Amino acid sequence: MLKDIYSKYYYDQNYNCAETMIRAANEYYDLKLHDRDMIMVGGYGAGIQTGNTCGAILSAVSVLSMKYVEQKAHESKDIKPITTELIRRFNIKYGSILCKDIKPQSFDPQFRCKNTIEAACDILEGVLSEYGKQKADKGAKG
Questions:
Q1: For residues 26 and 37, what is the distance between their CA atoms, to the nearest angstrom?
Q2: Residue 31 phi/psi, 5° resolution?
Q3: Are 73 and 59 in contact (CB under 8 A)?
Q4: 33 in helix, strand or coil?
Q5: CA angle in degrees (0–180, nearest 5) for 107-112-118
Q6: Which residues contact residue 126 at a Cβ distance below 8 angstroms, ignoring those fewer than 6 apart?
Q7: Cα 132 → chain centroid
Q8: Residue spans per domain, the chain
Q9: What is the pLDDT of residues 15-27, one digit of tens each?
Q10: DSSP of 35-100
Q11: Model's pTM, two decimal places?
Q12: What phi-psi label fits residue 34: left (phi over 0), alpha (psi between -120 and 50 degrees) or beta?
């Protein structure tokens, strides 16, 4: 499970929520990203450093892009529905996708954003698994 991998990045290597998500997902899903590639999400942490959209969510969307966009997002029939579902599930769980709204519900001074990262791992895995099954079912029927 993705959730079993993240802690070495978050606690042992002290990456922020966004960096942790992309690094754990890179390992778990074999995205073939290099260290330098993953640096680009560093600024997503702490809600793009401003309390805006949660960095763990933004990195989860980056993972979806790596899995479902071949060249251009607007040419992918998959990226919009799977991203929409990811965001929908975060809104169900937290009532928001904004760090400033999620943090009061989830942050623990001792463990920092552990709860949010674990939720992001669970939501990302669930969305990918269910979407993959839906695509396979449609392919079998079509």
A1: 10
A2: -75, -15
A3: no
A4: coil
A5: 80
A6: 89
A7: 16
A8: 2-141
A9: 999 999 999 999 9
A10: HHHHGGGGGGHHIIIII-B-HHHHHHHHHHHHHH-SS-GGG-SSHHHHHHHHHHHHHHHHS-SBHH
A11: 0.94
A12: beta
Rounded alpha-carbon distances, angstroms, from residue 62 to 68, 107, 109, 128: 10, 23, 27, 13
C-alpha separations of 117 from 3, 80, 81, 88 in Å: 8, 22, 22, 17
The residue assigned the tokens 């979806």 is 64
Smallest Cα–Cα separation from 11: which of 102, 112, 83, 85? 112
φ, ψ dihedrals at 16, nearest 5°: -80, 180
Q: How confident is the model over 54-99, as pLDDT tens digits?
A: 999 999 999 999 999 999 999 999 999 999 999 999 999 999 999 9
* CA 105/CA 100 separation, integer angstroms: 10
d(CA 131, CA 139): 12
Contacts of 21 (CB under 8 A, 6+ apart): 6, 41, 55, 56, 59, 60, 63, 117, 120, 121, 124
